[in-house]
Amino acid sequence: MSGEDVRPEPQKVISGTTRAAVFVVLTVEPGGEGAVREALGDLAGLVRSLGFRKPGEDLSCVTGIGSTAWDRLFAGPRPAELHPFRELRGARHTAPATLGDVLLHIRAQRLDLCFELAAIVTRRLAGAARVVDETHGFTYFDQRDLLGFVDGTENPLGRAAAEAALIGEEDPEFAGGSYVVVQKYLHDLDAWDGLTVEEQQHVVGRTKLEDIELPDGVQRPDSHVAVNQVLDADGEERQILRANMPFGSVADGRFGTYFIGYCRTPEVTEQMLRNMFLGTDGAPHDRILDFSTAVTGSLFAVPPAGFLDELPPAPGTGNAVRRTAADVPLDSSLRIGSLKPVPKPVPTSTKAE
Length: 353
Description:
Distance between the termini: 42 Å
Protein name: Dyp-type peroxidase
Order of helices and strands: EHEHEEEHEHEHHHEEEEEHEEH
Family: Belongs to the DyP-type peroxidase family.
Domain Dyp-type peroxidase N-terminal: 11-138
Cofactor: heme b
Domain Dyp-type peroxidase C-terminal: 142-305
Strand content: 15-25%
Structural class: alpha+beta
Helix content: 10-25%
């Protein structure tokens, strides 16, 4: 035995913090499936080629595929829990479901590298896919969002990040893959700035300057921190891996946060969103939604890196049997703690919420 690690190689889901990111969401045009498949197969090479010219700038691109597009692009098995993003309509706030077939999450220490890669890929996809959303994110002071609070503090690190974000033995065909939910939130800074710092801290659930979670008894049940705590049957907190970025335009007066959360199952992120928009036993909704409005929402499967290097046959050309969510056991547990084999852990310093 050589001892060689043969576990599936993930895409760069778990990555260190970068100073810039470009998020591109595309829809596949009718008849464009072949060109999109060709571009997906070439993405890793494009990243290597462009990144080689600027070593040390941490250029990477994570590619996600939406539920409808998956069946148009690939024959054979599909990720067990992939489905369209489900709109959530609460008494006061709504999480909309918006178009999205392909997600490109491009990260680097320089925005020009992100932009160059996005431009190359979208030029290749001209006529085959249409950009429905493009957002340029940046790192703000002290890892803060545009509300002035540190964003990303509680992200899992190291092996915990891999266990939270990467699919394991529960779906062996896609071990090393992930699921990702993206949403754009626009902030009402005039209303937000009308609050005192103490009131803002109660909304978020952390102190603004020191970034310390408010203690029990002070923490309000409708704070962002309280509402987003999701526990499993054993009382252990379920985690996701966030890579949020601020974005904005001073000319348009638009200021926001691009939420992007990776998880080995979409159920965790979806439960957090249900808590936020539909409420919990102790809160009608996440109080932060009174100041931040969701304007997009999509769910994508992130296949392991090898899947993109060797794409399965196109629909109608392969003979593999396609699996659907109805084919997997009705067990919603995360199986965290029983992950065998554990996808290769990748050290991370990615910021967390």
